[in-house]
Amino acid sequence: MDKFIIVDGSSMLVTSYYGMLPKQILFAKTDEEREKYYPKIMQHDGYYTNAMYTMMRTLDKIIKEQKPTHMLICFDTTRDTFRRQMYADYKGNRSETPLPLKQQFTQMEEMLMEMGFAVEMSDTYEADDLAGSAAAKYEKQQPTYIITKDHDYLQLVSDDTRLWLIQTKQENADAIMNRYGSLFGYDKETMTIPDKAVEVTPEICHSEYDVWPHQIPDLKGIVGDTSDNIPGIKGVASAAAPLLEEYGTLEEIYRTIDSYPDDKAKKQLTSFWKEELGIKRSPLKAMTEHREEGLLSKKLATIKRDVELKHSFEEMRLDRIDQEKRQQQLLKYGFKSLV
Hints:
globular, single chain, two-stranded antiparallel ribbon
C-alpha cells in the first residue's frame, strides 16, 4: 500500500542548522560576535554544510524507518508572500536569516532536486500552503503524514492526514504520546514514528489544544501568533477555547454578539458566558473593538489548500531517486558517511 510523507523542508533545515551550531555562536550576544565564529561551522570546499548534513541524515532515517512510497518536500522562498500583501507587518518581527543558513537553503533545495526528490517552492505561497494543498489533493488515496515543528499545521490534521509534530526533546514527545496511549492505541513497541515526534490525530489535537484541527485558524484569530506577528485580539486568550467550543467559528461568535441588539441584552450574553462557559472576565469589549483584527488574523492563519502544485503524484515517488546522482551530490558536499 502507498504511503505519502510531506516534509516541511524549511522547518527541518532551520532545526538542523541550530542543532549543529558551535556553542560559541549559540551563546553569542551580538551579530558581530556570531559572525566571528562562522568559520567554525561545518564546511566543505567553501560550502556551509551543517544544516544540509543533518537534514539529509534525518530524511534518510525517515525513509528507512517509515518506508514511504511517495514524498514531497516543501520550502519557503520569501517572506513577501500573499499574506504580507494582506498585512504588511506579517512576520515583521523575524530577524534576518544568518548567511550560513541562507546559503544552505539554496544548496539543499538544489541538491534534493538533483537527486530526484519532488521539491515544491513558491514566491507567492508558503511551505504550509504547498503542504496543505498536497494533503488535500492526495490524502484520500493513501495514508498521509506531514512532518514539521510548526504548530500552524495542526489545522491540516484529519482522519486521513496525521501530523508528526516535532518536539524539542524526545522525553517531551514520549510524555505526550504516553498520555494518550490507552485512549488512541499508541504502543511504542509496535508504532514507529520519527524521533522527537508526536503523531497528532483530531482527538489528540482537541485534547491538547482544546479545539479541533479545523478550528486552529479561529483560535489564532483570537489569540494571535507572536512567531508570525499575527495580532489576534488582545486580552481574550483564556476565553478563546470555551467560545469556540460553544460557537464553532469566529464568525459565529460575532453573529451571536450581533444578535443581541443593545447593551442591556448583551449583559444577558456575558452572563451566559460567565455562568455556562466559565469565562470569568468578559471578552465582549475587546471582541467588539478589535473585530477587524480578529477576522484578519484568522485569514492570515488559514493554510491554503488549493494551490496548484508543480509535481504530479507520480513524480513524488521515491523510487524515482537517481542513486548515482544522489551519491555525486553527497560527495560534492563531503557527506561520505551518507553515501
